[in-house]
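User: Can you predict the 3D structure for this chain?
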Amino acid sequence: MCRAILEDALREIVDPHGVIEQQVKGSDSYIMELVREAERRDILSDDRPDWAHRIRRAGNLAVHDLKRFKLEFPDNKFEELLLNTRKILEDLYAVGENA
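Assistant: Here is the predicted structure, written as structure tokens:
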């Protein structure tokens, strides 16, 4: 769920007209390209891009390999994943409000 929310927020703020999506069409790297663009625009800094990668990975594992997801993201790490998703969303929407 965090991955889906993150991707929608990135799309809304970073690529509202779908330009980047068209450039990477057919590739699973869309969310990562959105993260790179947010980083280039100084929307995401510090550890936020790294956390975006982790959130993407967690989402992929949750859908495709639940056993591995539970190993890599036990309860104590899952809360950290939620908190960092929130931090990224706050950064993204703070920019959106100021645009």
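The CA atoms of residues 76 and 97 lie 33 Å apart. The mean pLDDT is 91.
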